[in-house]
Amino acid sequence: MATNRTFTMIKPDAVEKGHIGGILNMITEGGFKIVSLKLTQLTVADAQKFYAVHSARPFYGELVEFMSRGPIVAAILEKDNAVEDFRTLIGATNPAEAAEGTIRKKYATSIGENAVHGSDSDENAAIESAFHFAGREQF
């Protein structure tokens, strides 16, 4: 029986700086099981679709440009209370406000380049997972 799942992306800034291994280590040390994982790159159209919920916000264009500028690591994670626990592990969007020991405190450099994405609800975790992984890629 599957437990709760969430979705994450290691963003282009963290990939460019070589932080994939460190971030994945923090994820597994946080008690998460990685059930799907891949290195990929979003096209501009992919990023526009993935972040469509933010399309009316002033930062949308910059977000799309940033998320499509280089490779990302997409992953589905499994753990009881996955969404909430992962949001705690990644920390506040602004790394200056993130708690010590969080991914963003350690690896993010700004609100815009904040190293990782984490789903904000069980529903969005399922939608975001399906966006990045075909059924046969989800274990």
Detailed description of the structure:
It contains 7 helices and 4 strands. The protein has 139 residues and is α+β, with helices and mostly antiparallel strands. A 4-stranded antiparallel sheet has the order 2-3-1-4. The relative contact order is 0.25.
Figure out the total of helices: 7
Percent strand equals: 15-25%
Poorly predicted spans: none
The radius of gyration computed from the alpha-carbon positions, rounded to a whole number of angstroms, is 14 Å
List keywords for this structure.
single chain; 139 residues; alpha+beta; four-stranded antiparallel β-sheet; 7 helices; globular
Summarize the structure.
This protein is α+β, with helices and mostly antiparallel strands and 139 residues long. It has helices spanning 12-16, 20-29, 44-50, 60-67, 82-90, 103-107, 122-132; strands at residues 5-10, 33-40, 72-78, 116-118. The model has no long low-confidence stretch (mean pLDDT 95).
List the helices and strands and how they pair.
Elements: E1 5-10, H1 12-16, H2 20-29, E2 33-40, H3 44-50, H4 60-67, E3 72-78, H5 82-90, H6 103-107, E4 116-118, H7 122-132
Antiparallel strand pairs: 1-3, 1-4, 2-3
